[in-house]
Amino acid sequence: MEYFNDLKKIININSYTKNKDGVDKVGEIFDIWFIELGFKANIHDRGSIGNHRHYTSPHDEDSKKLLLLGHLDTVFPPNKFEDFSEDEKWIYGPGVCDMKGGNIVALQALRNLKDKSIDIKNIDILLVSDEETGSDDSKYLTTKLSKDYDYCFVYEAAGKEMEVVTARKGVGTFFIEIQGKAAHAGNHYLDGNDANLEASHKLQNLVKLTNLNKGTTVNVGKIDGGIGANTISPHSTLVFELRYKFLDEKQRVLKEIDKIVHTSYVKGTISAISGGIQRDVMQTSKESLVLIENIQDITNSTLKYEERGGVSDANIVSSCGVTTLDGFGPFGDGDHTILERANKNSFELRIDLSEKLFTYFIKKLDFKERVV
């Protein structure tokens, strides 16, 4: 399959998020491929990260519009995990499932339309460059562009049984800086205000906010503080993450976090918080379930779906009110590790699914029209 050679080409270019040159090289290759299909490449230049790329097709006035969403960056720095390899069943390499492989699925499905002389219209593609580090820059562009679309398919990896994704947890990352007062631990113990002790109280109270029955977790993943064993700690830092499935849980936890931050459990300590919600929750909606039903009618097949704890840029688009489904890429596992792989057969399944949906959308201009 020729598209595996295309995948190999971009896998062998390191596109670690902070490697701007590598990310841009991958993006420039996609420029060529999408321009060949009749898309216009709109490049959103960035200084320290890769450029974001928005490919647009001709739009019919007042028609529904579909956005295909992906990202160009991967997680490993240069010389860590860069090689493409394959066997009879699997392809291995950084991004084969997360998500250069998904980008190739969308590309090949569009190529198949072109090969069948189907004019591509009302379908655009957005490839961002910083998804793996939280989309801190691209989320503003994605939010702005999303308002122009009615539907969004995201090409992150499919589930093990080729499920698409209807829901993802929201996520926020926070930093608490605690200021205490240093003192000699032997001679002037009572003169100090122990920031590390304050951090320990805050840590325990933060973790108590976890509610596994509702899918809410608070994890303090990093602690740093103090000078040495003989000094009362004058400073400490907590880094923690919040993940949630429901908006009311987000509000509950954020309110309690504020109380914890502004409570001094150790007299004389002062705390400040930074960070915030990176991606809001993507909840299964009536619209997304109706879309799945329509897709099953269009393809005359069953389309399974699932909810995931991890996040993607689907969270951003969904939060803008766009009917969004994720997981249109190939099935793979081991993502974010040196064991990342993607199943070869799943590429063909996903390309076929996307091609059918694109064809239907172009002809009908709306997925809400049911097959008769």
Task: Give descriptors for this structure.
alpha+beta; Aminopeptidase; six-stranded mixed β-sheet; four-stranded antiparallel β-sheet; 24% strand
Task: Tell me what you see in this structure.
The protein is α+β, with helices and mostly antiparallel strands and 372 residues long. It folds into two domains: 2-168 and 281-364, Aminopeptidase (3-Layer(aba) Sandwich); 170-279, Alpha-Beta Plaits, CATH 3.30.70. It contains nine helices and 18 strands. It has helices at residues 2-11, 20-36, 100-115, 138-146, 195-207, 247-261, 286-299, 314-319, 344-364; strands spanning 40-44, 52-56, 66-71, 85-86, 90-92, 123-128, 151-154, 164-168, 170-179, 183-184, 217-225, 231-232, 235-244, 270-279, 305-308, 323-325, 332-333, 341-343. The strands form five sheets. A six-stranded mixed beta sheet has the order 1-2-6-3-7-16, sandwiched between helices. A four-stranded antiparallel beta sheet has the order 4-5-18-17. Helix 1 packs antiparallel against helix 3. The longest helix is centred in the C-terminal third of the chain and has 21 residues, at 344-364. The chain is elongated. The protein starts with a helix and ends in an 8-residue tail after the last helix. The mean pLDDT is 96.
